[in-house]
Prior knowledge:
InterPro entries: EAL_dom, EAL_sf, PAS-like_dom_sf. This protein has helices at about 15-25, 40-50, 65-75, 110-150, 165-175, 180-185, 195-205, 270-275, 340-345, 350-370, 385-390, 390-405, 405-410, 420-425, 425-440, 450-460, 470-480, 480-495, 505-515; strands at about 5-10, 30-35, 55-60, 80-85, 90-95, 100-105, 155-160, 160-165, 215-220, 225-240, 240-250, 305-315, 315, 325-335, 335-340, 380-385, 410-415, 440-445, 465, 495-500, 520. By secondary structure, the chain is an alpha/beta fold. The termini are far apart. The relative contact order is 0.06.
Amino acid sequence: MRKQKIHCVVIDQDVEVTASLDAALRHSDVLLELKQVASVQQLIPVLQELQPHLLFCPHEKTKPATDLLETLQRYSPDTLLVWVARDEWQGLTTWLMGVESCILPLNDLEYFSQYIDFLLRYSAIKQDFRDCKHLLGVAELRCHWLVDYSWEAIAYISQGMHLYANNAYVTLFGFESMAEVRSMPVAHLVDTPERKTFEAMSKAADVGSKPSNRLLITLRTLDGERMRAEIRFIPAVLKGKRCTQLHVRPLERNMLKGVSLRKQDNPWEATEQRLQHAPAPRIAPAEVSVASPKAVAPLVPPTVAGMKMVFHKLQRMKENLPSIYLAEPEFQQKAQQLNYAALVKQLGNSGGRSRLDYWNLGQVVLRLSSQGHEKPSYLVFVSVGGAILNNETELKRVVELLNAAPDAAKRIVLAFPYQDCMAHLAQLGKVIKLLKALGVRLAIDGLPDSPQALKFAQVVKPVLVRVDVGLVNESIRSTNTERLQRLIYQLADSRCKVIIPCVQDKQFLRVAYSTAAAYVQGGAMT
């Protein structure tokens, strides 16, 4: 690649700092362009225009760094923030909002120029990496366009599941929607006697770097029709992730018809019989770090007398959204019956709430794991208290449980209460990274209508947000839904899918449909 020009911006609020930086930068042999601004207010248009590689600013302990980090995250997230202090030093740190920063000591004259030179070369490498990603994205987009307009049946697959398919593929197998394609394991489209051969080639393609040989195989449509076809696996990229293209060329159709492959409407019905005969796995200690699935023994919590798991299906506002089930345990013993809300209220933030969360999460993992090779097409929303955020022991137990069942973990949406997140912000970043490594999705529960809460959701970027029940009840009582609608639209604009809880009547359900919400929770159904 051609040599890059490094754009540097200095906030000129300290004469000595500016002079030292100017001298150090001009002595470097890196091609650069230096620009000075007088204040943070003048910085924003410069960020939008230049997208600079490095931003230098005098370090003042009395002023919070959050505002400047948020400005960078909004206008130029790839810019590296360099604080210049007298004696303080801090290595490169990546903040929760994705911006990198460090602190350089100005009085360390011997090494100051070396620090600057390192940062210039590091930012050049980052720029080259961004350019490579951009070119890969262009190539991927062109490839995707060619796939869409191809007459050949082509699907993107990974780890045995469909990611995307073109119209020719959808029509060939008789799918009705893209959601149905993604919910169908690829191996289920292969005739049973030849399935092992197909799975072996599919696994080899997941780790290989060359197109596979052509394979003659018998496939089945969703209506059970068999056909002889020629298939081939080709390495590919989809949305920046490695995957495989499956090319299908039918050779002979209208063979003997078999059993339909269409799925049941209720995903739990097929699981009940397996659960009754599922063996109890042994409990083995594990570290908090995420290990290989083969190295971890499966974990489940003990059974609790009187407790049962109930799954409520959320109502989707759009057909292309994935189905989500809400996991909420209930307690019943003799004449006493407590639903999930009553259990949480009674337990509060005590150790009992932690045990309830662990039992609840364990039952969900058991349900999902018991489906064997039939990977579910839905997600499960599980609420947990704040103990995971401020208690290393509880966090370790939860990670052990999820690490023991990696396939199940990828179908779980773990919801943290907003108030607990704000109370333990320092630990939240670590927990989010751990959950991301495990494949668990993040949700925020009970989000109120406030500028601070909205900014928090925009920075953390959860996949789901359930708005505060009090806000919904107030909107129902006052029949004024303006606040609720504004909050939902702001969250949707930040690419957060919103759940509206406590929708009990059809009148308010119609209001919910007029918003940008993704899901509705409650008894009212159309």
